[in-house]
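Hey all, sorry for the wall of text incoming. These are the two entities for the joint prediction.
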Amino acid sequence: MRFNSRRGVLYCLAVSLIASVACPVCFAQLGGVGSASTAGQAGTTTAAPISRTIRGRVTNGPDGAAIPRALVALNSRSVLTDSQGRFTFPDFTDQQAYATLTKPGFSQTPDQPMGMARQRLPKLDATLELKMYPDATITGTVTGRDGLPLTHVQIILRRAVFFQNGWRWIPVNPTQTDLHGEYRFRQPAGRFQITLGYVARSQDTGEAVLPVSFPSNTSTNAMPYFEVASGQERRIDLRPTTGPVYPVHLTVDGQDTARGIQLTASTSSGERFQVPSSLQAGVGRVSLPLGTYTLQARIENRDVSMEGTTRVVVTGKPTDVAVIHMEPAAIVAVELAITSGSSSAAAQPSSIQDGSQTSTGQTVDLRQLNLRLHNLSESSLPGMQDATPRMNETKAYEFRLFPGRYRLEALAVGTWYVETAVSGVTNLISNDLVISSAGSGTPVRIVANNTQGAVTVTAPMPPDAENVYLYLVPRGPSLVPINPIPFGMSTDAGPVSASTRIPVGSYLAIATTRQIQDDLRNPDVLSRFSGGSKVIEVSTNGVTTVNVDIAQEKAP
Amino acid sequence: MRMWTLARVLTLAMISAGDLPSVSMATAPTREYRITGVAVSTRNGAPVPYCRITAYAAITSDATAMPAPPPPRSRAPGLGPGPRGQSLASRTGGNFAPPPQVTADSSGRFSLEVPGPGAWRLAATARGFRSQNYDEHESFHSAVVLTEAAPTFNLTFRLRPDSVLTGLILDEAGDPVASAQVMAELIAPAGTDRTRPPSRGRATAAGRTDDRGKYEIGGLEPGSYRVKVQAQPWYAAGTNGNQLGRSAAPPTSPSPDPSLDLVYPITWFPGSDDEATAEAIKLGDGEERQVDFHLSAIPAIHLKVPRNENVNPPAPGEQRNRQQVRPVTVTRVGSDTAFGFQQINVTRGSQSELDFGGLSPGTYEIRIPSADGKTSEVRQVEIRPGSQAVLRLEDSKPMVRVQLKLNGSPNSENATVEFLDSETGARIDSQNPARGHGGFQPGELGDRPPPEEGDATSRVVMLPPHQFSVQVYSNSGLYLTGMEAEGARVTGRLVTISDQATLTLNFADKHASVDGVAKIDGNPAAGAMVLLVPATFGMAGDLNTIYRDESNTDGSFRIAAVPPGQYILVAIDHGWDVDWRDPATIGQYLLHGTPVDLRTAAEAHQEVVAVAPT
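and here's what came out:
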């Protein structure tokens, strides 16, 4: 998967996240679902399809109260629960069933960010007990300098989601404050940051409103968030700085045309926003309220990547002036070498610029490794955080990087994975990449490998109708993404198992009953889940098999 | 002063270059031009503190009195009628100096210096008050006229506070309905116009309900409104997924449970599905009114249409690329959609037919491209409340092919002819086919339609067999002088289509104008309603409309771009509540009016005596 646009990165991540969350079991098993005619042929050969009446109840996860009028969909049929939360599916002939629960203000899982999860139901005989979890509410009032509410200002909510190797912000549809200056969001429980967007001219006061976030964007914490639990209401009032705007004479040099210059300003509290400006031949005016700002000008398109910053103090006097000198981004070449450990031969590296070929004729393209450099220092505007390698005129791959600090990620699909990654003497798997100036940077050297081993993990079946997930956490620095692998559910009460192929190495195998929205590489997080887990060594010698217990989560 | 005139601010050379809100003259003149006064609320007479007052210069130009060509179907809900108060200066952002502006003090008192004499449009805005002009009525206002002899003016700026509509939308079980769209339409203020259907879609403001089912529509101009709700049952979304804009489930999805295959019809307050029985809600200045709805779901209606690939199967040996056959489209048309049309997605399909489901009562257009893709059969079906659940192609009526001939002016080729359906409120436009686009027809989103037949002065348009009011829009100020039809009945501006017909439209583009001063008891009548009434007004077959203006603070007025003819000029002091569209009412005033002959004179000047309203 290769992404050309930054925004596309976020969306594609979001879509992948939805897909992996919504249908984990779908990936594992597709047999037996569908019309009654095929279900009957799946197992037994002579018996007619069993028709039964499925009964169940939908209750509120936190307190067990019945949920009336919830939509329960079992395969292709759906029905609303009654006032006691009960539902009935008469004449149900499918042998296996997936349940989808829907109700406004509720979600099917306690903390999934989005999408409709489908639950695999292992037992259809007994009365089903299904749970839904109420959404959380985030609400508050925005008031201005005069203590009066600010209406029609945009409020942006972002959810912090841990996905594969890193934390990501997933935006929620923004809203506007109403006539009382109030905003309101209803979302499944999770971790969020809320931001009031910059307003050049308020409808109420005619003045500008500077952005403010909660939690605020301090430089130490890259992902500041607050947490709301299921069914909880959290009230966050915002008191932004407001004031009239004053013009600043701006000159941007280093580039001939003014086309495509993106101008942003950052306040001293780390809020970054786009500023409207009109530049003719790099000269023009920008209007800002009183205060101190960092102004950044950037041009980024297929041909040109340039950026410059300057500090400006807006005093309101006609002498306010800012000059930005743009520098081109650093060009960092990407060199790819491969090792292949097919059979027991020693690694045979060969180095070619863009794609590589092993002695056995296998090829890998850099794009399969899905490299990206996640910008840690940029306080985020959507779509501006990750840098991906681009092919230049000589068909070689390179990164174009503005000064900052980056972390390497490789969300590889397929069998190839990143074994080592260095820049000069810096090991990029365990360290950040620091870019300090323009010009050419030290190339990044990647060694890719496709040596994988097979793993099968078994675990006891949990008592309730729950899904079970396997996490294989690499021990030691690694770029291998940690993805939840769903266990196949059995129809009897026997143990369940999960099988996969994964790069060779040493892992900790953990089985849980819910997807973990957290960084398992972090020892503190890992320590909450380790009970019942086991260390395994994955190699090319046969299938590594291990039996684990379902890990219990200790409250943080 | 008329808003159309001021929409074309031509020059701001009078304003000296200055970046800060209060402008000071750099050069010699000693005379200071100033507008002073106090801003008060009409609700209780209390001052409006920190009100922001802006003065916009206007050069009276020959801006056409004809309505400007409509923008391409962006009838998206706005924040209510009224001027936005933005000048050309602030729009171009930099090349022009900003207009003079001042903020009133805590008692609402202000003193605004302007750079020179002339007619100044004064606009005010504040928290809780939408931007509005001094002495504003509909799209008119009274400009403040400053002269060398009278360089200052003191006034009381009466601002009407915004009204608010708020409420709860609940479903049949008493649960909140989220994401319901609530629309408030301002009812045309002065009575009914007998030459055109009740205005629809004009001045609509909208709001959306939150998860509690609560909505709030603010910034409303005081007046009478009809309120309606569009919503979808949340439990039907996954099954039929196709109501008014939602994306559909794939065509192979299983059939929805009949008990959940429900829709909400468009519901007018207090709960009817017919606009004619909707209650008018009168909002006073600054009033907040609670308007709640309880929605009842009805079974969704399905329209089944045979797949057009099967209509003309390819001849043996004939190669036909399946991709080239454009699919059947169904589009909801009419005034109850945000943009005048809404594409409907297929919910299910079988080998032989397509099922367009999740339909609620309304008017739908079905477009069936022919096998060769060159023409389309166009049909229309009207789904009424209580309709049966499944409708087929036979329940729709074919549209009628109408040939248009545009006659009388070399500029007529660029005119847009609009047919306003008296029954459904849908608008069908016919534009110059030589321009390549053939107009923005419903059902052709994203698809280049086949070019309409004809050349610039002769066109073809497909219309349902209804009655239409014909209006023409053009940049060159064309107006309709008459229509003749073969195969259809014409009365004035109305044409009734039943079968294939040829319609000849006669145009002209000559204009005249009249300006003058309205006086009462020898003094200037400021803020009077000035009407230029055609001598033929009210007679059968008359195509002419009444043109209006509001007199400025010195009594001056100007009505431009009117078709030549004989008129009677009337000024009514404080006459904004008069039902000027009613010939019987206006007839009394005509007796005291002043005849103006604009048949030959291009510009006339006329003093007129304003009368009190009767």
